[in-house]
Design goal:
- The chain is α/β, with parallel strands linked by helices and 367 residues long.
- It folds into 2 domains: 232 residues, 3-Layer(aba) Sandwich (Rossmann fold); 82 residues, no CATH class.
- It is 24% helix and 29% strand.
- The strands form 4 sheets. The chain has a 7-stranded mixed β-sheet, sandwiched between helices.
- α5 packs antiparallel against α6.
- The longest helix has 15 residues.
Length: 367
């Protein structure tokens, strides 16, 4: 069987991108079988979308909704032409509905993680990108869904093998046809941990640990699948959530161009601040007056009913009020106690601008 989407020249290794070789992809497809209903499949590290598109066509394109996530802009643009929906995003910055995909094709980036790249996940073994993408992706796969996991053999440590044997049954592992990157292809069907058979889990764990330590060699992925195929279950509903939590650079640029900053809505945001304050409902008490002065609410041009015009500026300052108390002790001596109390005094300074006023041009202080 020839692939419908042959590799193109730009399928090069970049930023941890290791595309699945054609022969391995073609053989892996023989291990999959469609179900009777509509299916949803996902590749969270899709590259150019070739692998997930091939899976969709192998299962029956008219019955499959193919979803993809890709970090690189050029590869994401190419993948959009092959799948139903593709996000140009980092998988860690996406929100995707859980347990809504019948197949997870996971060929994650390869490499070590630094401490600030773990996105809140804790690793007891070696922190690797393969583990990070596994932790983020597995909740998206529905129970009884099929996993195809393609990673370097040396990544299989006790922590990752423990996850695989707890989350999956019918685990089978094979060596990829292209041995350049020492990849292994792991198949499994997701189950709840309580349904896992302990004997099967122990056997799979022992083999995968030996492979990870380099103590055992796996068989090459067979050209024809010799076992009952992994049946991709139907999807109960399409994902309700499938989006990134940040704007794409092109989308952000388009929004900036469309909105033109805050100037078109200047009056909406800043207009109310330019309006004159409304008159109070009642005469201000000295306490209210002090608060209004301290807040700067009493200022500007004031016209009185008598016609006086003043430019006023309110303020409040603190004064100390001294109170002295004298008491007589038992021995006849006098004890004097001084009590200082803070008192806030409102002050209004007014510039008299009344025409013909004898104090015109003078600054008056109103206490």
């Amino acid at each position: 069987m020839a692939l419908m989407f042959p590799r193109v020249a730009r399928n090069f290794i970049k930023n941890g991108y290791f595309p699945t070789d054609e022969e391995t992809l073609e053989r892996a497809l023989t291990a999959l079988a469609p179900s009777a209903g509509s299916m949803c499949i996902l590749d969270p590290c899709a590259g150019e979308g070739v692998a997930i598109a091939e899976v969709a066509h192998a299962l029956g394109r008219e019955h499959v909704r193919a979803y993809a996530v890709e970090y690189d802009a050029e590869r994401a643009a190419h993948a959009r032409g092959l799948v139903d929906r593709c996000l140009h995003a980092d998988l860690m910055e996406t929100i995707i509905s859980r347990q809504t995909f019948g197949l997870l094709w996971l060929n994650p980036p390869y490499g070590d993680l630094v401490r600030d790249q773990t996105n809140g996940y804790e690793f007891h073994g070696r922190a690797r990108l393969e583990k990070l993408f596994y932790q983020k992706s597995i909740p998206l796969l529905q129970y009884d869904g099929v996993l195809v996991y393609i990673i370097p053999a040396y990544v299989l440590d006790a922590e990752l093998v423990g996850w695989l044997t707890r989350h999956f049954t019918d685990l089978r592992a094979y060596r990829a046809v292209d041995v350049q990157f020492k990849q292994v292809v792991i198949f499994g069907r997701r189950i709840r941990q309580r349904d896992q058979a302990s004997s099967d889990a122990r056997a799979a764990r022992a083999l995968l640990l030996q492979v990870g330590r380099g103590e055992a060699d796996l068989e090459e992925l067979p050209a024809e699948w010799p076992f009952p195929p992994y049946c991709v279950p139907p999807c109960p509903a399409e994902p309700a959530q499938f989006y990134r939590i940040t704007l794409e650079p092109e989308q952000f640029a388009a929004e900036i161009h469309r909105l033109q900053g805050l100037w078109p809505s200047f009056d909406t945001h800043l207009g109310p601040a330019q309006q004159l304050p409304r008159a109070p409902a009642r005469v201000l008490s000295r306490w209210h007056l002090a608060l209004a002065l301290a807040a700067g609410a009493i200022s500007g041009v004031v016209r009185s009913k008598s016609g006086r015009i003043m430019v006023v500026k309110g303020d409040t300052h603190k004064e100390k009020s001294l109170k002295t108390e004298c008491t007589e002790n038992d021995d006849g001596s006098i004890r004097e106690t001084r009590i200082l109390t803070d008192r806030f005094v409102p002050v209004i300074r007014a510039w008299d601008m009344t025409p013909g006023s004898p104090t015109r041009g003078q600054v008056l202080t109103i206490r």
